[in-house]
Amino acid sequence: MGDQESIHSLFQPTFGNRPVQYIGRDGVIEQFMEGLSEPVGSRNRCTLFLGQRGMGKTALLLELSDRASNAGYVVARVTAHEGMPKAIIEQFQLNGSQYFKDEKRKVSGMTAGVLGFSFGLTFSDAAERQYGFRSKMSLLCDKLAEKGKGALILIDEVRTSSAMREVAAAYQELVGDRKNIAIAMAGLPHAVSSVLNDSVLTFLNRATKVELGTISTHLIRAYYERSFKTIGIKVSDEILDRAALDTRGFPYLMQLIGYYVIQYTPTGDAVTEAIMEKVEKAAMGDMEDNVFKPILAPLSDNDKLFLKAMARIGGTVTTAKLQAALGENGPAIQPYRKRLIEAGVIEAPRRGELVFAVPYLSEYLLDELNN
Ligand SMILES: Nc1ncnc2c1ncn2[C@@H]1O[C@H](COP(=O)(O)OP(=O)(O)OP(=O)(O)O)[C@@H](O)[C@H]1O
Ligand SMILES: [Mg+2]
Q: How confident is residue 41, by pLDDT bands cut at 50, 70 and 90?
């Protein structure tokens, strides 16, 4: 490290990138990796990660992709758009081709294509034309198994769609055929909303569900300490505490705070309280645009009324207090409560109690009310 560019890429507060250093989530990663060593079809080989925007779903899938590749899997990483089945096939062909480099192209006129492939992981013309997703996957799994490799599908931004239905059905059939296949999906909390009723939903609900929470602020503090030292920024214990606690363990905010500290502190200088104030302000601006606004946008006016009442009461909110705040003629709590929990905006730590599930959303709503 040392040149200007690497200094500034140490923290990257953007979505969907691979972080320079992956922090925390050891338990989550281990559980999934253990699943990969379990027999085909075991429940941990089909996992669904749920988390709010910026909680690190895409980063986790990228990390799992690396780990699984090292553990003998060829990985296809896609988002759940309509072209997904085709994209999955292409990803396996692309990422698996390195294991078939020594296989010479078959001489034409021979029985090439009988087994479905013309060479390597390229399908014969006939297979390409005649076979659908499931048959192609079956051929690919067999071919990869010849090289001792399994197949791992990673699906980001999971939602119900006909493409998702096709992949889910194929996965179940491939498992039935004992193919060495596994799947990990990631999506927003409401991806499994009970409002939806669909075969995809059944599939998602049968998967091992893992809710992604915040990461340890101790780990974040240690990471900040190492990073700032590497690039020659001086930082006191108090400032380190402040920066780490500021993040509340939220991965996107960890990147934002780290990024702005480096931006606002000249190399060789110390981070001051005044710099931290600027950092916090800038970070909150990005949180507003990229987390708070997208979360609030799809909600109804009454949803927002509900959330603002919660923010005004503050802390852990009891249902009784909330009903009182909304007034007797206000909206009934139950349907909103249920929907907002499903949307991952609020949580019920205990029966009859509610808290915000997104860090600083309460503060943001209060600010909005006061301005
Ligand atoms: N465990 C982690 N360690 C370090 N950085 C992380 C970690 N998890 C996420 N990040 C970083 O936080 C930011 C947000 O993460 P990511 O893009 O994965 O969120 P997401 O949950 O996929 O959000 P969205 O729902 O908007 O797609 C990225 O800059 C990412 O690199
Ligand atoms: Mg993402």
A: confident
CA of 15 to the centre of ligand 2 (A): 6
Question: What's the mean pLDDT when you consider all of the chain?
Answer: 90
Whole-prediction pTM: 0.91
Which ligand lies nearest to the CA atom of residue 18 in the structure?
1
Considering only CA atoms, which residue is closest to atom 6 of ligand 1? 251
- Sign, CA dihedral 307-313-316-320, equals negative
Report, as an integer, the average pLDDT of 150-167.
92
Ligand at minimal distance from the CA of 59 is 1
> Is the pLDDT assigned to residue 316 strictly greater than 90?
yes
- Report which protein residue has its CA nearest ligand 1's atom 8: 56
**CB of residue 230 inside a 6 A radius of ligand 1:** no
Q: Which atom of ligand 1 is nearest to the CA of 55?
A: 21
Which residue, 78, 117, 82, 81, is CA-closest to 100?
117
